[in-house]
Amino acid sequence: MSLPPGFIDELRNRLSMTQVVGRKVMWDTRKSNQAKGDMWAPCPFHQEKTASFHVDDRKGFYNCFGCGAKGDVFKFVQETENASFMEAVEILAREAGMQMPARDPKAQEKADRATQLADVMEEAVKFFRLQLRTGAASAARAYLDKRGMAAETQGTFEIGYAPAGWQGLFDHLTAKGIAPQMMLDAGLVREGKQGNRPYDVFRDRIIFPIRDPRGRCIAFGGRAMDPDDNAKYLNSPATQLFDKSRTLYNHGPARAAAGRGAPLIVAEGYMDVIALSEAGFEGAVAPLGTAVTPQHLDLLWRIAPEPIIALDGDTAGLRAAYKVIDIALPLLAAGRALRFALMPDGMDPDDLIRAKGPEAVQGALDAAAPLLSLLWRRETEGRVFDSPERKAALDKSLRQAVSAIQDPVLKGHYEREVKDLLWQLFRKRPERGASMNRPGGQKRGGAFKTQPIAPRATTRASLLARGDEGAQDRLRETVILATLIATPQVIEEFEDRLERLRFSEPSLARTRDAILRAANAGAGQGAEAFRETLMQNLGAEALENLLTADHVAIVPAVRHPGNAEFARLTLEEELTKLDAHRGLAAEIAEACEDLSGAADESVTWRLGQASAAVLSATRSQQGDSTEHDIADNGLPIRRDERGKLDDLLARISQGRSGPTGEK
């Protein structure tokens, strides 16, 4: 809304800075000079005992020499009331007796009508409060006493009582000269059937006035005293003043408390809010007879960047929290977060305060979990992921949930967190039937701690330990694949050699093919897009198993993903070694076929050349008795190759065509 020229200046001229600020501070009379408008007080924005907060009434500014807070009268109202600029203007305009300008005649007419309805609502507040003191309200007062609501608290929240008669409020307002149509428009009465007089909406109920952030009474909530009443709680119907999907109970006081640093707590109902406020948690609000809506979340984030949803510790409370997750995900952004505090099972905040005191509530708030933790709990609690299909279903449901986030930066953070949680969950081998709602360990203080994992039973069956023939080839092949995954930008340089590479196992060949396809599909999109495409094709578990294999994880090119120099050196070395060893193996096989009669000198020459290639390829590698043996001629030859070569050389030296001794 735009304001006409001169309106702000006129409003500022009508206001006394000292008077506005004086509602929030206690002036230091010894240090202040009221005649000159030179006032001092302890600062309302930080805790202090000395008067370092200065107001210059003539200039219309304040300044704290302790914390540095400064501004004009509008800034002061914004900070102390946690209000927007236009809300601060409205507050000060009412105090100065100035009418806020309307944008057009219809808007002015509507504003006038809203003011009239608000006046009617104030008359109803007075009526209900008076009724609470009558003999007819004895049961209502007994109920409030039983709930521990002191008289002072009842006054603070303006608790009242609607008498059991059908037209108690209607008759009272009629006597005040208020037209029935105004009562109908305010949502206080309903049309009588067949031409009968209107009747009261609220009857035999404890009444809770509902005020907007500006302090106007816009609706009422009523708790039935009759246990057989169909509606335990009843709110006013929708009116020009009231829309329950856009209204929070205790909005104004909670906003002011949040502006002073109090946590913003979203409870379930009136009694929870009142109990929390009286226990010192003054930033408590509640939706009104409806689930949390996107409009509610917008209101909450205008007050504080990270409201705490405090829900009952039962199944219904958890279901309500899960619904909030789905509503909130598309609206999340930096500075727009949520945390969830679940009360002990079967208790709401009011119960917890009365049973264990404010300290128990503070403990629940301190342990409030971020939205992602509750999302993870919803998708995993009570489920076992002992098959690829179940794991894929979890992966899919989490991705669908995260995809609702509109903010690209936040969405990226969520995707990385989800990947980490999945990695922790899938790398663990739970017993059948074990609960999977805590990935890799216990949840402490809202964060997941991974428990140490025992050595895997598969270690004794590893390729190296078994000494399988061809095991070294498979080890080198997995190192090559892991290096490509860690630094995909080098794939193009080695693509031809990779396509010609013969893998020892079909699964490794399929992984090579998936890597090449992902590199082509994600060209120019970066390592993250490449990894995402690869995970979709291979699955998270297959990728994790490859990258965390013991002999792979220690390779520098894998430990330093994105380092192109490490990757090129590793790929060149491992591909060259594979070519050399496979060349020697091929020569040995061919030599066996070529031998006929006496030894052929060309055979020994070819074997020498192949062995020299092996020596050249492995010159940079340290000798390791688990990987290489040294042949008689000093060449590092693999064990499986050495046996064949020894047999072949013996046959050549003896001039035999076969190992049996036949000529």
Pick out its properties.
5 domains, zinc-finger, DNA Primase, Chain A, 29 helices, DNA primase DNAg catalytic core, N-terminal domain, alpha+beta, five-stranded mixed beta sheet, disordered C terminus, DNA_primase_DnaB-bd, DNA-directed RNA polymerase activity, four-stranded antiparallel beta sheet, 663 residues
Explain the overall architecture.
Its EC number is 2.7.7.101. Monomer. Interacts with DnaB. The protein is an alpha+beta fold and 663 residues long. The chain has five domains: 90 residues, DNA Primase, Chain A, CATH 3.90.580.10; 139 residues, DNA primase DNAg catalytic core, N-terminal domain; 76 residues, no CATH class; 82 residues; 82 residues. The radius of gyration is 39 Å and the shape is elongated. The C terminus is likely disordered.
What's this entry about, in short?
The protein is of the alpha+beta class.
Q: Briefly, what CATH class of the largest domain?
A: Alpha Beta
The name of the CATH topology of the largest domain is: DNA primase DNAg catalytic core, N-terminal domain
Spans where pLDDT lies below 50 across 5 or more residues: 430-469, 620-636, 656-663
Number of helices: 29
Structural class: alpha+beta
The number of strands is 19
- Termini separation comes to 109 Å
User: What is the H level of CATH, i.e. the homologous superfamily of the largest domain?
Assistant: DNA primase, catalytic core, N-terminal domain
Q: What is the average of the pLDDT values? A: 81
> Helical residue percent?
40-55%
Fraction of residues in β-strands: 5-15%
Q: Strand order, biggest sheet? A: 12-11-13-14-15
Largest sheet: 5 strands, mixed
CATH architecture of the largest domain: Alpha-Beta Complex
What does the radius of gyration come to?
39 Å
Shape: elongated
What is the total domain count?
Answer: 5
